[in-house]
Amino acid sequence: MQPYELSLTRAADAIRNRQLSPVELVDSVLQRVEQVEPRLHAYVTVTAEHARRAAREAEKDIAAGRHRGPLHGIPMGLKDLIDVADMATSAGSRVRAGHRAQADSTVAARLTAAGAVLIGKTHTHEFAYGLITPQTRNAWDADRVAGGSSGGSAVAVAAGTATFALGTDTGGSIRVPAALNGVVGLKPTYGLVPRHGVTSLSWSLDHVGPLTRTVEDAALVLSALAGHDPRDPASLTAPATDYRPGADADLTGLRVGVPRSYYFDHVEPEVEAAVRRAVDRLAGLGARLVDVEIPMTRYIQATQWGLMVPEATTYHEGTLRTVPDLYQADVRVLLEAGALMPAGDYLRAQRSRTLMRQEWARVFQEVDLIAAPTVPVTAVRAGQETITWADGTVEAVSDAYVRLSAPANITGIPSLSIPVGHDTAGLPIGMQLLGRPLGEDVLLRAGHAYQQTHPAPARTLTPTA
Predict the structure, then answer these.
(1) How far apart are alpha carbons 91 and 152 in whole angstroms?
(2) CA distances (Å), 113 to each of 23, 107, 110, 198, in order?
(3) Catalytic residue among 7, 28, 153, 173, which?
(4) What residue stretches are annotated with the Amidase domain (predicted)?
């Protein structure tokens, strides 16, 4: 196994035990970038010299006994919405041409303090306003979409060009590409990870979180990211927590909700079968399965769009007036549509969210977590715009990908996507675990237990175009 193929946890153990140096790991990842990046386009910018310099510094510090913890010397990618001082944050848009960050975002500063090594900035759908990431190709099939908007981060992790990465999630933008590329994606509780220095799409729905190879890796990154920051008005004051799950795979006593409604409606049969098998495996580890009814399902899409669209338009109000032609057509249409939405619609969406949070809280009185598909269909071919279901219903690809992930953004609850198999075309399938606010420890425990007994196969890409 090459160093770039190691999970964060295994790489960190090897570095701590002096079996691997940060320089060796970073060199391996950069060589991997040279191999596959021309094919996959996960990165906007690769900061190779910066990474090599940081790796040498990490190696010296560790040799001198100044080991900072499990992220020290570990290569990472950051979505190109996340500010790093003196580095461009283009947000995937010509609108941001020439923009350079004056200071680190909170998450970048915390990861740097933990010793992580930046490999580069990863591609996003323009201003994170989409579920495709058109610049980037799927790590398993280059003719298919990567998912978005954190597609670059997911592909980098899946392809071995970053050991972990950060993404953002407003309607599924961490979990969707995680599922489509066979990696782990965690959308934390709203406000748990500060967003200061991260370009906003919709301030009441935005989250920052990790994309990793394993659930244990996600826990390590979350432990470094979580914590209050007064510069983010939504930042929570939850106490610092070590989210690493224990080694015990016994889930006896855990109540896992299995949706009777919504989450298995209009889902590919292979996706449903793989997720139900994974749920049965949780039961085999001791969990008790409980049927649950998902509340207010008819209002989910309207509430998601009713919140996101006007907030996004407000954020872009100035540049939409002055440089509208610099936006891509799909994003510009959405921003212009937001300007036409009445204030009453936005207020009704806020009221709907309040009611939805209350109803979901009642569901979580019955169960400890909910298990469901992350997305209803695996990665579609690039350029495909719609999906036709067996009953003849036609759905836009973007609507299909956001449909099952949006409830966790509306309610602010944590959601973890883990790979649970592949369809007959060899494309990854993801299952999401949803939990109570600040219930990340429960999700990570369950996801880690599943992965201990059913590890996901690694993906080895050839460097050919």
Answers:
(1) 12
(2) 18, 10, 5, 18
(3) 173
(4) 24-444
Q: Domain residues for 156? A: 3-299+344-453
Q: What contacts 346, CB < 8 A, 6 or more positions away?
A: 306, 307, 310
How high is the pLDDT of residue 240? Answer: 77
If you write DSSP's letter for every residue of 205-273 in order, what string do you get?
A: T-EEEEEESSHHHHHHHHHHH-S--TTSTT---PPP---PPPS----TT-EEEEESSSTTTT--HHHHH
Active site residue 28: no
Q: Is residue 267 part of a domain?
A: yes
The answer to the question of residue 335 being in a domain is no
CATH number at residue 120: 3.90.1300.10
Report the C-alpha gap between 339 and 219 in whole angstroms.
Answer: 39
Which has the closest alpha carbon to 177: 128, 132, 243, 218? Answer: 132
* DSSP line for 309-353: HHHHHHHTHHHHHH-GGGS-HHHHHHHHHHTTS-HHHHHHHHHHH
Q: Is 60 a catalytic residue?
A: no
Helix, strand or coil, per DSSP, at residue 453: helix
435 in a structural domain = yes
**β-pair partners for 76:** 118, 164
pTM over 0.90: yes
Q: Which of 108, 73, 122 has the alpha carbon at shortest distance from 193?
A: 108
Residue 100 phi/psi, 5-degree rounding, is -130, 140
pLDDT in tens, 216-267: 999 999 999 999 999 999 999 977 788 999 888 999 999 999 999 999 999 9
Tokens of 317: 């109000």
**Which one from 79, 121, 405, 415 is the annotated catalytic residue?**
79
Cβ(224)–Cβ(112) below 8 Å: no
Residue 314 is assigned to a structural domain of this protein = no
* pLDDT band at 463; cut points 50, 70, 90: very low
Give yes or no for residue 97 having a pLDDT over 80.
Answer: yes
Residues 6 or more apart in contact with residue 88 via CB below 8 angstroms:
44, 45, 80, 96, 98, 99, 100, 101, 121
Q: Are 163 and 67 in contact (CB under 8 A)?
A: no
Q: Which helix (H) or strand (E) holds 10?
A: helix 8-16
| Total domains in the fold of the chain | 1
Active site residue 149: yes
User: What confidence tier does 2 reach under pLDDT thresholds 50, 70, 90?
Assistant: very high
Q: Which member of 28, 105, 149, 200 is catalytic?
A: 149
Pick the closest to residue 179 from 305, 278, 51 (CA basis).
278
Nearest to 243 by CA among 21, 10, 439: 439
